[in-house]
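Session log. Operator J.P. requested a structure for one protein chain; no other inputs attached. Running the standard single-chain path with token output.
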Amino acid sequence: MSTFSGLNTAFSSLNAQRVALEVSGQNIANANTVGYTRQRAHLESVSGAQISRGTYSQPVGQGVSIKGIERLGDLFLDARVRSTGSSAAMLSARADAYARIESILNEPSDDGISHSFNELWSGFQEVAKSPQTLATKQVVLEQSRALASELRNGYSALETQWIQQHQEITGQVAEINAAAASVAEFNTQIQLMNVSGGNASELIDQRQLVIQQLAESAGATARFREDGTVDVSVGGNILVSGNSAQKLAVTGPSTLQGVMGATAQTLQVVWERPGSAIVNFDGGEISGKLLATAPAGQGGLIAKAAQGYNDVATSLATSVNGLLAKADGGKPLFALGGDPAAKTLSITLTDPEDLKVGAPNMGEFDGSIADEIAQLGSSIDGPSAQWKTFVVKVGVEAKSSAASAEVAYSAFETAATLQLSNASVDIDEETVNLLTYQRGYQAASRVLTTIDEMLDQLINRTGVVGR
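Structure written below.
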């Protein structure tokens, strides 16, 4: 009986070493697969049986069994990657919005609005020196037209940026809905695999990638259940539970003007269900984009920049027109067509003779009004100073936002590195494992051969000596 028990022991070792070899082979095959988590066959000795040995019995082990194939991931490291990834994505989205605004401002630059302001004030200074010269007045009209055009173009660029952010949010919500449905499907497959006694490690890896995508896009968090499924939450509310997934939708204005002024509305993401409750994102890229598209009163980056353009345009028109109104026969130079001021700013004068810059009863050679307008360039509350203050404020906020994003991304990289060091495949380690399991397989086969020879001796040769 003990001899045949030895055959079973050797066979169990052959089977166990073979499975362990296959697991190492699977690891090596997926060494460069994104999101793959290495696995390890968990070997466990089988308890012994009572084997009779003369007048006493001694328990002998009955080989080895595969207890299971372990996925060597770490839930805490995975959660840390999701958390830092969510924060980094949100801050990066905000920093990117600031960077786009800075590119629209184009300051400091020889083509920026500050330069155009300086050219306009210098032009009025020349008119003050020779107010009877139509050529200098024509130059001022062209400079005014160019400045108004730059303000309009800047505002239009902000409108385009807002619409682009709106489109990106809409597309991202569609991706979140698709990812949530995918997680629910993975939950179903993993649960079925676990019930049937299969290995769901690869499915878990694929689900993990989708959950990480949800964390970076929507600040999602995950809670794992004992049955292998996972619940995904966004803003404290369940997005995925078991094999069911909720959907999100986008509501609110579709243009920048919709988030401006006293009647400003807010672009929102809501739950696609009765009541349409607002989704309060805790992080993720979509959170940063929603901040960029919010009304100015709620910290909206684009709306605040647009309001800055409107304030400067209004200040320019009212200050210059107010001084020209004091001139003898003075006419307004700028016109505000309504709201938004920056987009409707235009030039009313086309004939340089209509630009009157002399004070009443001072004669045709008086350019005192032009000189007063030129002094707006050095005024502490003039349109130039207002523009510079606006640009500096945006620059400071953009720099701070970029620094925060860099720190957050560094934390994310650290977390991702720790996760990879724990879960990624080490080719050297797997090579050593292959050799170890191969030697174990060879030894077990040698045991089988030896026992086979013993049985041959026992069965076929016992009692035949001397025949």
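Operator note: Residues 118-154+303-394 form one domain.
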